[in-house]
Amino acid sequence: MSMTFYWYPKCGTCRNAKKWLEANDIDFEAVHIVEDTPSKDKILQLIEKSGLEPKKFFNMSGKKYRELNMKEKIKDASVEEMAEYLASDGMLIKRPIAAMGDKITVGFKEDEYESTWN
Fold first, then answer.
1. Is the separation of the CB atoms in 1 and 28 below 8 Å?
2. Does a cis peptide bond (omega within 30 degrees of 0) precede residue 96?
3. Which of 15, 19, 26 is CA-nearest to residue 117?
4. Judging by DSSP bridges, how do beta strands 28-32 and 97-100 pair with one another?
5. How far is CA 67 from CA 15, 32, 118, in A?
6. What is the pTM of this model?
7. pLDDT single digits (tens) 85-102
8. At what angle do helices 79-88 and 40-50 cross, to 10 degrees?
């Protein structure tokens, strides 16, 4: 089974994660998170499988997040509403997201990749 790797090529963190995957011979399919933003249903699946709180899927340091005042919008939003927001704009999604089977990581921390993907 191959990993799905949602990334934004201009993002340095994403490039570092991609290099790590390549260096560790992990087979993955790269998906441009802005050009091919995951659907609401796909995001709901990712949230559910990850076990993380839905807010962890937002790129809270991103310009779009601030411009759209997402901090206020997601404060009392349901999981469904949050997934809708995320599916509306790939720049709102924290990246990269690596997904294979029931394993999912959001963002890139080398030690987390070591323990999850090696």
1. no
2. yes
3. 26
4. unpaired
5. 25, 22, 38
6. 0.95
7. 999 999 999 999 999 999
8. 120
